[in-house]
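Supplementary notes for students who missed Thursday's class. We covered one full example, reproduced here. Read the sequence, then the structure, then the short commentary at the end.
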Amino acid sequence: METITRNVQDLLAFYSVAKEGSFTKAADAVHSSKALLSKQVKALEAQMRVTLFHRTTRSLNLTEEGRFLYSYCEKIFGLTEEAGKLIKDMSQELSGNVKISVPVSLAETFTASFLGQINDILPNVQVEIDASNEVRDIKKSGADFAIRSKDNHDPDVVARYLGRMRDVICVAPNKVKLPNNATPEVLNKLNCIMHAPSRNWNSWTLTSGDKEYVVQTQGKFASNQYTLSRKMCLEGLGVARLPYFLVADDIKEGRLIHLFPEYKISTHSFYLVYLKETYTSQKIKTTKEAILSWFKNRKDIFI
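Structure (token representation):
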């Protein structure tokens, strides 16, 4: 069934001509041509099978059908203009909802201080933290931002580099006794807590100046979550490679011992990922800057 909404441009052409009372004035108002507007109005009349204007060489008047249609056009395009203004106002408002996807291991550290910071900046914004290690399609997940550790990203997203994660090797006290001259090679012989999802992560590269050691770890226990690996390590079940931010307090308070602290461990990068948008609301801009600010110079997270 054909409707007058099939071609909104024709309807807008009719509305402009009726409002201005002239094809010439309407063409100037909408930055079009008199010939194009005439063609569009004729197409609308043909579609509706009615005459919308009484045309003479000196005057242009609406028919009864034309007046009826014009009254509805005033409502339609008036609402469109109003909606545009409201959306523009919304884009400038610092209110609404923001969803941030964060890896499970980072969620507690990030959430604890970031939410307080963002609440001071955006008191009227509701923030949802989605703690997950699953790399979801950011469009389908509904997240405004995602903090990710993979280096390859979809072409329709922006990936802002945050830094390389700082890992440490640690063990429960009294579980391992190393000689003073021990090197990271000894890790090949120790029971290590393995990383379940990717066996590649169980190859540890440690560097200090021009010294480099590549350790192929082995062990009885494995986990796919850093938080579980930390608990295993605290229970004395093996040597673990863990993010420093997760065990900083444990090391400081003596629950864990930091092995080979003079060595750095090759690790992966963090990125702030969000969709490419032509227009970005002030709420999203402010949240993005707050996230970038929070991660800046975090020595407990990055090398």
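Commentary. The chain has a mean pLDDT of 86. The two ends are 65 Å apart (CA to CA). If anything here is unclear, bring it to office hours.
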